[in-house]
């Protein structure tokens, strides 16, 4: 019953397969070749028959059945105005659905939107397919050799990893955020409003996150991402005093993505979390809000 493996179990198996097949050239992972070869060898009656790009309205990728009765599957990914890095992650995500979920999908297959694939913010099988893709394309053991969990990476370090794994800067940054020991917050914004944000676990646990789910979070006026003042490489860095982003000193590194008209911002908080001082300052903020309302 190997098709009942979990998505992560499949990712482990695919990684072993790839290591053995091409030990000297592991990265970037050629996900199209793996998907095609593995499905034909392991599931010859139900293989992946095609992987194609297209202009997809409102979604990033899909896995859909072919033939009646079904004799295979197709993957389609969005390639309209999309940088090459995104394509690899989308195909890996759909390959994850094929391996782990194809027996339980509805008759029309599955369509996956940008919230699930680009933000990695889906639930259930979407989350599983994302974990499969991240594990296959950016294994922790390799990633941690390039950016150790205790290291504060530069934007260039993260760009180097994105290039190594052939994924987008957003995908590489989200992967690093999953294991870093640093308190860091990643913010994706446009025109001074945060579209979404994600905190590393140490940042989240210390109360450092942005609420972007229900309404647009307007960036602080002093935020570089809101000021549109970048150097010739489209970058800006600053150390902000307490009270700009959070009630403690915050280092901001922002880079403009012209392809998507987005600003990508990494916020680093001090390594030592001065709990008492921060709680005191938060209490004062709350107190001031309450008294100013009355
Ligand atoms: Zn999906």
From TrEMBL:
Alphabetized PANTHER family for the sequence: ANTITOXIN HIGA1, BLL0069 PROTEIN
> What organism does the record attribute this protein to?
Methylocystis heyeri
Q: Which residues form the IrrE N-terminal-like domain?
A: 75-176
- InterPro entries recorded: IrrE_HExxH, Rad_response_metalloprotease
Instruction: Give the Gene3D superfamilies listed for this entry.
Output: 1.10.10.2910
Q: What is the name listed in the Swiss-Prot or TrEMBL entry for this protein?
A: ImmA/IrrE family metallo-endopeptidase
Keywords in alphabetical order = Plasmid
Taxonomic lineage is: Bacteria, Pseudomonadati, Pseudomonadota, Alphaproteobacteria, Hyphomicrobiales
Q: Does the keyword Glycoprotein apply?
A: no
């Amino acid at each position: 019953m190997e098709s009942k493996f979990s998505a992560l179990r499949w990712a482990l198996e695919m990684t072993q397969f790839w290591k053995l097949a091409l030990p000297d050239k592991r990265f970037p992972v050629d996900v199209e070749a793996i998907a095609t070869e593995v499905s034909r060898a392991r599931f010859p009656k139900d293989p992946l028959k095609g992987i194609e790009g297209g202009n997809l309205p409102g979604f990033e990728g899909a896995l859909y059945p072919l033939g009646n009765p079904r004799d295979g599957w197709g993957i389609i990914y969005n390639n309209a105005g999309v940088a090459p890095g995104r394509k690899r992650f989308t195909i890996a995500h759909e390959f994850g659905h094929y391996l782990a979920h194809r027996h339980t999908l509805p008759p029309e297959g599955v369509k996956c939107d940008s919230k699930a694939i680009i933000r990695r913010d889906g639930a259930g099988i979407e989350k599983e397919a994302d974990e499969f893709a991240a594990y296959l394309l950016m294994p922790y053991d390799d990633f941690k050799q390039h950016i150790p969990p205790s290291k504060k990476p530069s934007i260039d370090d993260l760009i180097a990893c994105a290039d190594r794994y052939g994924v987008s800067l957003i995908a590489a940054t989200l992967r690093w955020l999953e294991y870093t020991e640093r308190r860091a917050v990643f913010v994706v914004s446009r025109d001074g409003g945060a579209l979404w944000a994600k905190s590393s676990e140490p940042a989240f646990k210390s109360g450092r996150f942005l609420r972007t789910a229900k309404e647009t979070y307007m960036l602080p006026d002093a935020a570089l991402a809101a000021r549109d003042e970048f150097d010739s490489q489209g970058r800006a860095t600053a150390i902000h005093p307490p009270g700009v982003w959070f009630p403690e000193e915050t280092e901001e590194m922002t880079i403009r993505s012209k392809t998507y008209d987005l600003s990508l911002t990494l916020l680093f908080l001090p390594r030592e979390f001065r709990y008492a001082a921060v709680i005191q300052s938060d209490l004062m903020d709350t107190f001031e809000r309450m008294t100013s309302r009355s």
